[in-house]
Write a sequence for this structure.
């Protein structure tokens, strides 16, 4: 089975995570500069067989758009055009950043490490993907 890559898209940084070949476990890959996202995805696709791109779709708790929702939807369309051989999905990402931060606290990370926004972005992508893999599909 081919892998799924998850994207936690941000204005400056974007977190990436990937599934195992059996699509059971999500692993954080890295956080990249958002401007270099397409290039970074191409690098991942050279290393791993990926057939699905899962993008976090940001919404407020009441379901309305956030300040970045439009940018995410634009990138979603761009990725669909660039990677026609891959399924590109939008997935509700509400609470993923909060869950990532809580996971960092629960794991005993020191306060300074928890302030690492790149780590939060990567963990958010992992949580997003794991939720999808666990049956949210």
């Amino acid at each position: 089975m081919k892998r799924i890559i998850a994207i936690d898209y941000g204005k400056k940084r974007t977190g990436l995570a990937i599934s195992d070949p059996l699509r059971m476990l999500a692993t954080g890959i890295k956080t990249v500069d958002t401007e270099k996202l397409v290039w970074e995805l191409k690098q991942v696709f050279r290393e791993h067989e990926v057939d699905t791109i899962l993008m976090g779709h940001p919404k407020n708790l009441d379901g309305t758009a956030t300040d970045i929702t439009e940018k995410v939807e634009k990138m979603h369309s761009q990725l669909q055009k660039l990677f026609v051989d891959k399924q590109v999905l939008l997935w509700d990402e509400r609470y993923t950043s909060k869950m990532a931060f809580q996971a960092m606290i629960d794991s005993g990370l020191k306060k300074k490490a928890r302030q690492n926004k790149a780590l939060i972005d990567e963990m958010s992508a992992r949580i997003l993907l794991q939720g999808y893999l666990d049956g949210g599909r």
Observations:
- The chain has a mean pLDDT of 89.
- The radius of gyration is 14 Å.
